[in-house]
C-alpha cells in the first residue's frame, strides 16, 4: 500500500476491538520513530509515554471525558508531553546541542515570556504527533488523537512534574462496526484547490 493509500485508509477511530493487540515489534518501531521526530534546533522538549497497563489505562479513562471507551479498548495510549521545567530544558540543550542551536534559543526563544516559551515547546510536540499519526497509517494501526482529556489529571496519574501532558493518542485496531471508518463514513475534505496553492 502506498503512503497516499495509507492516508486514505486512516481515520479517527471511534470504536476499538479490545481483543486485537498490536504486535510488540510494531510498538517498538513506533518508539524508535518518535525518537527520530524532528524539532526546531533539534530541541526535543518532550516525553512520550506508552501506556498499556490495564490499571493505569483505567485511571486515565476516567479523566478522558468522551474518550473513556477509546482509552479502555485500545491496545495502548501514547501520551505526548512537553517539558515544563525550563531550567531542565536549558541544561539539556547546553549538554546535548551544538553552540549554534543553543545560541539560537538564547537569542530568539529565551527572551520571551514563560508562556511563550512553553508554547514553542508545544509546537515541537505537535510535530511528533504528526509523525506518529503518519507512521501508524503506514503500519496499518488505527488511531485516535485526543485533546479531550484532563491533562493535569493525566500528569498526576503518570507522576509527571517536569513535563505536562498536551495530547494523548489511543492506538489499536478498529472494531468492524465502527461507524466512522471510511467504508461507512467517507472522508470529507475541502476541495484540494482551496487548500493547496502552487506558485
UniProtKB/TrEMBL annotation:
InterPro entries: NfsB-like, Nitroreductase, Nitroreductase-like
Cofactor(s) annotated in UniProt: FMN
SUPFAM superfamilies named among the record's database cross-references: FMN-dependent nitroreductase-like
Keywords, alphabetical: Flavoprotein, FMN, NADP, Oxidoreductase
Keyword Disulfide bond found: no
Ranges where the Nitroreductase domain occurs: 9-173
CDD domains with a match to the protein in the record: NfsB-like (cd02149)
The organism's place on the tree of life at top rank: Bacteria
Entry similarity comment: Belongs to the nitroreductase family.
Protein name as annotated: NAD(P)H-dependent oxidoreductase
Organism of provenance: Flavivirga algicola
Amino acid at each position: 500500500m502506498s503512503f497516499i493509500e495509507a492516508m486514505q485508509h486512516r481515520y479517527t477511530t471511534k470504536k476499538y476491538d479490545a481483543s486485537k493487540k498490536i504486535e510488540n515489534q510494531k510498538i517498538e518501531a513506533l518508539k524508535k520513530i518518535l525518537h527520530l521526530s524532528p524539532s526546531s534546533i533539534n530541541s526535543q522538549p518532550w516525553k512520550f509515554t506508552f501506556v498499556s497497563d490495564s490499571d493505569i489505562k483505567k485511571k486515565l479513562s476516567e479523566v478522558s471525558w468522551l474518550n473513556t471507551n477509546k482509552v479502555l479498548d485500545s491496545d495502548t495510549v501514547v501520551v505526548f508531553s512537553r517539558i515544563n521545567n525550563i531550567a531542565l530544558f536549558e541544561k539539556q540543550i547546553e549538554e546535548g546541542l551544538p553552540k549554534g542551536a543553543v545560541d539560537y534559543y538564547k537569542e530568539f526563544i529565551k527572551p520571551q515570556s514563560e508562556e511563550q516559551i512553553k508554547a514553542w515547546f508545544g509546537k515541537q510536540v505537535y510535530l511528533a504527533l504528526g509523525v506518529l499519526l503518519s507512521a501508524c497509517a503506514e503500519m496499518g494501526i488505527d488511531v485516535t488523537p485526543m485533546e479531550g482529556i484532563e491533562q493535569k489529571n493525566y500528569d498526576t496519574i503518570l507522576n509527571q512534574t517536569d513535563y505536562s501532558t498536551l495530547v494523548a493518542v489511543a492506538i489499536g485496531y478498529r472494531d468492524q462496526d465502527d461507524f466512522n471508518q471510511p467504508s461507512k463514513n467517507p472522508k470529507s475534505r475541502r476541495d484540494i484547490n482551496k487548500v493547496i496553492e502552487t506558485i
